[in-house]
Amino acid sequence: MDGPQVRTEVLSGITVALALVPEAVAFAFVAGVEPLVGLYAAFMVGLITSLFGGRPGMISGATGALAVVMVALVAEHGVQYLFATVVLMGIIQVIFGALRWGKFIRLVPQPVMMGFVNGLAIVIFLAQLEQFQIATPGGGHTWLQGADLALMLALVGLAMAIIWLLPRITRTVPAPLVAIIGVWAVVELLGLDTRNVGDLASIEGGLPAFAIPMVPFNMETLGIILPYALILAGIGLIESLLTLNLIDEITETRGRNSVECVAQGAANIVTGFFGGMGGCAMIGQSMINISSGARHRLSGVVAALALLSFILFGSALIEQIPLAALTGVMFMVVIGTFAWRTFQVMRKVPLSDALLIVVVTGVTVVEDLAVAVVVGIILASLVHSWRVSRLVSARTWRSDDERVKTYHLNGPVMFASTDKFRELFTPKTDPARVIADFTDSRVWDMSGVDALKSLAERYIREGKTLEFHGLSPDCAKRLGDYTRLVVRDEEHDPKYELFVDRDNPPGAPVGH
To answer: Any idea where the STAS domain is (predicted)?
Structure first.
């Protein structure tokens, strides 16, 4: 890196650290733990993933997606069980990465990815609305009103204006950092009374200390923490890998999914032993970092170390930062994160894809990211299967003497298309000899093979001869007793294998 890039990385890291503080504190409250538990997690997870992760420039820390799962565990069993769960969560993630399963995130369709991005942008926006509320004596919350609301909106607007205007003048320093400092300066110079970071909680503390979670090491404990660990590991990896893919698209570079899985797991193992609540990639802070020009590991390292320095030495100063400044920064993150081209895309794509975007966005907001992605993948798979099922077709012709009928098939023969495949054939009215030519078709799975067997039985019951042409050796072998019906052409027959073998998982390339 040259000098200007180093400066960009350092300043961007400081900006990210400032934005991490209220997020970590808020998510700690959501999980039902002390603020320092969230801050320590942001420091340790952020530092380890920045040093060893598969996506330079991506920021990790304590997140709301994980916090909402943790709250039930903490409420019922206490914070020590949370630490043990975070350690087990990390072990699961390391195993996932070591088995190189991170590559399967590529199976997430583009409409699901777009829905994920839009859903998280809305979630980030809704989370900032809490800054427009104040606590009431009864323990509830009420919205700001009158002069307090006007002041909050004015300061948020000032921060957003600085972030929008400054890059048009200079990119020497990150606009979000200038916005935070600028709003703080205005508040101090004018003596304005507005809420600041210190109103959330004190962030003062010492170095995180190593401690083995104080839980019984027996099967009962494992039975309690394992379900939570599996859910947390899944949510953490899904959010991290989807954020990684998003940054890949923005920077036009390629991250390493499995390396990121291992780094996330290692970070959570360490965090669990040092009193942190665990974490994963944070799309909001990552977007701040990337939009500020950071592209290397240095920015993430600086952010983590700056956060630790705030805890150790600078809490009094950081607690004076107006929440309005950080809210303005996050609102600009929302604007930059939301895929505004969605509205244009939805007018051009099939209705099923447009509905998929809306569903994933909605489920991300109402439930959580993991549920949204799973629902999205299932729906996308069903839509794809339906589309594929309509592709199978056949051209037919008879020989000059009308004694032979040929079915020349096109499209895939698979679980979703077997019904239509059967409808293509008319055994009762066909001549004594029938040829089913699969030269321009493919049998994808065992459901397709079963459809061929069923077809052979139909013609045998009618006392007619059926021949299969253009099948691969693997497909012919799986026909069992009906392999004798296959007419081989070694020179021209395809060589693909069915998607049933361990070495040929679904999604493997198919070809001649």
So the answer is: 404-479
